[in-house]
Amino acid sequence: MTSTGYDHLGEALGTDFFAVREQFTDEQWDRFITTRRFVDEDVVPVVGDYWERAELPWPLIRKLPGLGLVGEDIQGYGCAGMSPMACGLVHMELHRGDGSLGTFLGVHAGLAMKAIAMCGSEEQRTRWLPDMATMDKLGAFALTEPDHGSDSIALETTARRAGDEWVLDGKKRWIGNGTIADLVVVWARNADDGEVNGFVVETPAEGYEATRIDGKLSLRAVWQADITLRGVRVPAENRLPGATSFKDTGRVLTTTRSTCAWMALGHATAAYDTALTYARQRRQFGKTLVHFQIVQQRLVHMLAELTSMQLYCMQIGRLADAGTLSPTMAGLAKMNNTRKAREIIADARDLLGGNGILLENHVMRHMADIEGIHTFEGTETMQTLIVGRDITGVTAFS
Predict the structure, then answer these.
(1) CB count in 10 Å sphere of residue 166
(2) Which of 27, 89, 180, 293 has the fewest CB atoms in 10 Å of its CB?
């Protein structure tokens, strides 16, 4: 791999113990370097203040289209058109900087744009995706409901046909970007056949009410919403024709569930890098922390777990590139990596001692943010049961 001339690359490659970077293509490497430079130079120096204030980092968000990072692997329509592996690397790096910024892009591009790309008609893709690629229009993905978190297939929001329109009624919860989105992909149960369909609600819309969820202590610099739909009328041409059952919803979620494994890797990498740098510099009992055997032991254990997470991500990236990544593979990777990330970050926080709880050292921010990722897109418990069903043939939940 040729030199990039990028000065801040050393520590990143220091975590690459098994030299997985040698397997990146030029396209993947370029996306990685572009995002890493942005994170180190623009995100990390300022994002703690946004996180503390629970304020969306608009100056950072507005830079994403110019970096060519919006649109995932969608081809055409002004979208990024990345390979699935490159998408993973971009999300890993964004989350190494800040989970809120990465989650914002994940909702807008990974969920809303991908839903339109995968389930929409050519006319719908042409109508909406170019403005979403430039972020002139922002997207949201409204699936989860107040009484149906893990049991999302049991959603109660309804859609009934009324002439040339559909009428939506129901409630949604934990909807990222729900208060600011121009286009909200709403999943509702068709009153005629009981199947789950997708609809694009263009806001503002009469009967659409979104309220920001406050008091959130994870992913503070991205906003989730409670949404109420009271007789919201949607033109028939805003129904996604490729979304005719919950299986179609699941196709979209498979891609984002694998992205969660990359997100977790980003948070864990940030925590490990911080802990290693701190241990090299912090002096106690007359020498730096790295001179103590127990500190070296903990750092090596963290690196071993981090490396295993990298290998998970490389393989799901390869499978996604080949079009053979299954929902259960994605679920296992998400479950494994979020659990390991929590452990690595907790060790990093402990190694920093009291300094570990200071926002300026970032570890506590990552510790809080990984909790959100550990939960969304299916909790560890649900992923375990889904994979368990796959390997045993027995369903252990209703």
Answers:
(1) 24
(2) 293
